[in-house]
Structure formats: structure tokens, C-alpha cells
Amino acid sequence: MKTRYKIIERKATPYGGLYTISEFIHQIKFPALFHSVFGKYRKVREYHPWENISLVIATILSGGERLYDVERLASDPVLPDLFGNGSVPEDTTIRDDLKHIGKMDDQRREMLFSLNEQLFSRLHLKQITIDVDGTALSVDGHQENAEKGYCPEDPGSRCFQSLSAVCDETETVLAEETRPGNTHCSNGATDFIKPILDRFSPQMTSITVRLDKGFYSEDRLSELEDYPNVIYEAAVPQHELLRNLVLSQSYKSYHGSEREYAMFTRIGEPGRYYYAERTRKPPQTQLDLLDKDAYYYRVVVSNDGHRQPHTLFRDYNGRGRDEKQIEELKNQYALGKMVSGDFDVTKALCWVCHLAYTLLGMFRQIALRRDLAKYRLRRLRYLLFTTVAYWTRHAGQRILNLCSPLIGEMRLKFLLRRVWAY
Prior knowledge:
- There is one protein chain.
- The protein is of the alpha+beta class and 422 residues long.
- It is 38% helix and 19% strand.
- It is built from 14 helices and 12 strands.
- It has helices spanning 19-27, 30-38, 49-61, 79-83, 91-102, 105-123, 189-200, 218-225, 240-247, 309-316, 320-332, 343-367, 377-385, 409-420, and strands spanning 127-138, 147-148, 158-167, 172-180, 206-211, 230-235, 252-253, 260-264, 273-280, 295-302, 389-394, 397-402.
- The protein starts with 18 loop residues before the first helix and ends with a helix.
- 38% of the residues are buried.
């Protein structure tokens, strides 16, 4: 039996739930913050720069993956009013703003710093964990500075390298940097990390920085040791001298675990402590000719010598969340998909993707509770953002009419109250 249908002309949006995000953006005074950070770098004609950036963020949150997807909002009767001035510019107009922003490296970093400072102050955070990691963004075509480099997902392809520092407690991006594809992740990493610690170290009682072995460097560890309240945990690459030390240690198991641990120091390196973990290889594993025993080894160096080895590795394994966050940025926030032939525009687009991730992270910390607080963008889009909404006018005032989202009317009301109380 066929189900009859009828198409009606009701000017409504399927993404009315993004009203919660637009309210949050205004509660944190995003327009004023943007203006104070970036200043007046062009004349304001019809569209303010912050409005154009907000429209790109709305495009990402509603599922857009290309810059020209912004133009699809032109037929939306609600979102342009919530995130802009009621109309949508051409993507070339937005690209002009992005080109300006792409040249302002310090201002882009300051914007992320300021947003995180707001959140830390609100949550009264005094201890944070920073995960620093890089990832390759493979692209098709010949975009400026898209070079062949380390790209495990698509070997031999042209790519950009994205470097980011994420706060593990709040799941927000503290800083990001987009670089040519032939740049190694550790190149310039000290200059990337130092402004973060200079900014947040005086505000915190303790900061833990977690690094993988690609960022290991004697000079970098020395720089981190200059901060009295910074603890680092860095994986150590294997080399022959270290290997001999690791093999000569006496290992101990904790709580019946199959993993065994040891801690040792090296002569000439006061204040540095090496933590080793070994796991027996499966019985059927074929050993290499140069294998000296039947164990896998991992080594992490830290300037904190008051830890039990198994607890340090448990905390260090939390870096796995950072890998998931990078995957989420790529798959749900269009990181690496919104690119341009102009490298300055590409840098700005990647920054907007991280900015959208940070704003949603702040929104999650402030407004969401219980099971909603653990949901990622794709799930929130289904449960909260995909809600039919349309404008009506009553007594000379415009009213946004929202259909009840899948999370229910009461939960939506309490969510908005927490947003307005920010």
C-alpha cells in the first residue's frame, strides 16, 4: 500500500537544535571576543567577519564538509538569522576573510587561548593534561604547500601536517598549526608548546604534557624542565644503549597483571626517570634474528620520580583519547576536507574546524549532563540539533518555534537554562 504524501511550503529548518549553540556563542560574547582579538582588518560592509566565521561553524555542525556548502544555508530560513545577519554571502566573500585570518597566526592562537581561559575559570580547573600530537591531512589536487610526506593513511599522496594541543579534561583545543606536508611533526614543536605553557603555567598548580616518541628530544625535555609546575611524560625511541639498560632491569608485576614494570635513571641526567613496561609476546610469535628475549618493551621518560610505574603507564595510555579526537576532527568536523588552493585560506579553514570542536567542547562541559555529555557531534546532531524550527511573529516580536527534539522537551529546557546562566 502506498503512503500518500504532500509537499507544503513551510519555511522551516531541519537544524533548529543549533539554536542552543547560537545562544551559547552569544553567551560567551563570541562577537566581542573575535573583534578584540582580530581587530578591524577590513571595512564592514554587509557582513561582519565574525558572522562569516559563525556561518562556517554552523555549516560544519550541520554536516557540511566543503566551504561552498555555506551557500546551502542561503535557502535555510533560520540558521542565517541565528549565526549571522539573516543572509548568506558567497563563498568567495568568506574566502577573503579566511585569507586575512590565515595570515594572523598569533591572533588565531590567542582566540583559542581566550576561549579555554574562560572555560577553565568557569570550571575552576587548576590541573590540566595537554596531549600534543600531529596528523597528516591527505588531499587531492595540487593545493599550495600540499607536499608528499609522512601520511600513513594514504602513502605517497600529497598532504598537510596538522599539529594540535588538546586539553584532556575539557576536550578543547588549546592551540593548532597547519604546516606543509613535508614537515616532520617534531620540527618547531618546542616553539609550538612554549606559548601554551607561558600562558597557562602561571594559572595552574600543575600541568602534565604527554608526548609520543616522535616528539622526543633532549632539548625539548630541557625546555619543559624550566617550568616548575610542568610534568612531562614522553615516549622514548629505542636505541642500543637504552635497550641494554631496559633489558638489564628487574621487573615487577602489579595486581596480578601480565604486564611487568621497572623504573631506572641514567647517569648524567638528574631529575629524569625512565619507566619501562614489558609484555610477553604470544606463544606463536616468530622472533626476529636479533630479538634478545620474548617481550615487547615500552619506555616513557618523566621528570616525576614519585610515581609507581604501572600508574604512570595507565595515565600515559590516556593519550589514546587524543587519537580518537583527531579521528573525530577528521570525520565529523571536516578537518582536511575544507581546503583551498591558497595556503593561508587552508590554515584558516583548519583553524575554524578546531574552533568548532572547541566551542562544542565548551558547550558539552557547560550545558550537557549525564549521557549527553559523552556524545560526540554526530550523535548530538541526531538527538539534539536535528529539530524542525521556523519563525513566527507575534505582537511585533519574532519567535522561534522549535519542535521537541529526540532528547525531550524538559531536557532541552534545562539545557538552555544552563546556557543562559553561563
